[in-house]
Amino acid sequence: MRVFANPVGPGSLWFDNLATATGTPVAYDPQARAMITMPPFCANRDVIGCNWIAPEQGAFCRACAMTALAPDPAIPDAMPHWAKTEAAKRWVLDNLGRWNWFRPEDPGAPPVFYMLAEGPTPVAMGHVGGVVTISVAEADPVLRATRREALDEPYRTMIGHMRHEISHMLWWRLSLRDDFLEAFRAMFGDEREDYAAALQRHYQQGPPEGWRSSFVSTYASAHPHEDWAETAAHLLHLTDIADSFAAAGLSSSELPYHGWDPYMEADAERLIHVATHQVMAVNHINRAMGLSDLYPFVLSEVSRRKLVFVHDWLRRGAQGL
C-alpha cells in the first residue's frame, strides 16, 4: 500500500486516515489514488468510519456500494466489527485496483458482499456466483485467534479473509473466459471434483503427506478451488508487502531499482524473489520483539509456479487481455 501526500501541509497520510494531524478532514479518492479534502464523502463516514469519497452527497463510496447486506446492529459489537471488516475490504479492493479490477475501466461485474454478524450460529464465509459472504464477528481478535488455533492455522486476519474470498470471486470472473479453465486445470487440477466431499475429507483426515511440496497451506490441499484461492491470496500478500516496503522508504539490495512498483512488475519470479527476501528480513525483526512472523510460510517450487500462473492472470484478467 502506498503512503499518501498530505494535500494541505507537510507530512504523509496513511490509507485509513480520516483527517490530517492538524484536524483537516480528508478522504481517499480511489480513482486518483490520492487523499483529498473536498466532499462528497461516503455516507458511511459517520457510521463506520469509511474514509472514501462518494460520487455525490449522501451516496456510498465505490467500496461500500458493493455491500448488499449489512450486519444487524442489534447484535452486540456488530457495528465496530463491521467497521473493521469494511476497512479490510477497502484495503484489498484498492490493492486489486492497481491491476484495474473493479474500477470503472473494468468491464466485468464487481463483487457483492454480505457482511453478517454472528448470533448463536457461526457464519460460514464463502463465495457463490459473485457474492462474497464474510463474518464480521472475526474482526474480534479473541474469536479470530480461537478459531485460528482450533484450525491449526499460522495466519488468520480480516485482510486475509478478504483476499481469500475475493480470490474465489476472481476465479469465477476468469472462468467465464474461453481460455482460462483448461490452463487452470493443468496447473491446479479439476475443480469439478466433488467440493463438499473434498472438504469433508480434509477436515476428517487432514492434508496429504508431503503437502508442503505442492501447496502454500494445508487448506490449499483440500480442493483445486481452495488451492487457487489460497495461492491468489498469497500473491496478494506478497505483492502488497513488497509495495508497502517500497512505499515506506525502506531500502534493500534486492529492490530492482529506485521507484520500483511491484504492481507494474511483469516478471512474477522477480516479484516473488524480492518479496520473499523482504519477509524473511521482517520476520527476523519481529522475532526481536517476540512477535509472530509476518509471513509464516515457506514456498516450494511448485507453489512458486502456481503464484506465477496467478500473477499472469490477475495482471491482465480485468482488462480482458
From TrEMBL:
InterPro entries hit by this protein:
UCP012641 (IPR031321)
Q: Which domain of life is it from?
A: Bacteria
Cite a single Pfam family from the UniProt record: Peptidase_Mx
Q: What is this protein called?
A: Zinc-binding metallopeptidase
